[in-house]
Amino acid sequence: MAHVWKCTGLRWSPDGPVLVWDGGRRSALPWGKRVAFAVPEGSARHCVGARGHACPVGAVVPARSTGARCEECARLDRAHSVAADTIADDPRPYRVYLAWFGPGMVKVGITAVERGSARLLEQGAVCFSWLGAGPLMAARRTEELLRAALQVPDRIPYAEKRAVRSALPGTEEERAAQVRELHARAVALSGWPESLRPEPCEVTDHMGVFGLAGAASAFGEVAELVPGGEAGGELVAAAGPDLHLAVGERGVVVLDTRLMTGWELVSPAASQTAGLTFPLREFARGQEGLF
After folding, report:
1. What is the pLDDT of residue 69?
2. Is the CB of residue 129 less than 8 Å from the CB of residue 204?
3. Can you give the three-state secondary structure of 13-49, one letter per residue?
4. pLDDT confidence bin for 273, thresholds 50/70/90
5. Closest CA to 221 of 245, 251, 197, 255
6. Residue 226 has what pLDDT?
7. Are 247 and 275 in contact (CB under 8 A)?
8. pTM here?
9. Cα–Cα distance, 145 to 190 (Å, whole number)
10. What is the mean pLDDT of residues 145-167?
11. What's the CA gap between 283 and 159, in Å, rounded?
């Protein structure tokens, strides 16, 4: 019987992206590595549970869901979450940041100081700068100040981030320009919480970390995983939860690793042949330059 694996998601380590598996095993993903897996015939995708606990009913969840949780587990997962703004008493210090994903697309957000830049890598931020640091509620108030005064959003759908990468400027200075401009406008605002310490604008660029510089354009993305389907290809780039796989003569395809969670995965039958039989969604002509 084929060995079965359950993916718990993509993480970013100091050495690059890593796939994490149920039980704690980790698979490093250096550029050029072959990534290949299949979904067994007759299988179904099940809820991954919430906050370290299994779904009590083992609910089946939609193949296109990026959360892989049933309605009840999704509610429980967000019931004690900084991202969902359901925690007000976290004693850890937080940082406010400006993250840039492409021309005209920048957001404000917060992350625990102890996490460093991990949150920015997970979101696929092409470049970013810290804005300030302080207690959680001071960071939240600063985030709200920028939303109200400068109309900077705190959330950007991932599909939109992916789409604008077809037009990424070629130099770090060009990519940093909007972050620098917004940082200057932000620190000039009145009404900053006294407990939040402003930080200078120092833009970090992730083009090299993501492997995007010079990477081939992707022609489409995996729409969903299905029983009996398989994927295999060479890793050429990664950003946020996305893997960019070269699948032979077809070109490069984007695989959102969040679609892998909740499935039982096995090695594909033709383990030496790159291929893809999952349903694809081709990018519109205006997105042909993705990455």
Report:
1. 96
2. yes
3. ECCEEEEEECCCCEEECCCCCEEEEECCCCCCCECCC
4. low
5. 255
6. 97
7. yes
8. 0.88
9. 9
10. 87
11. 11
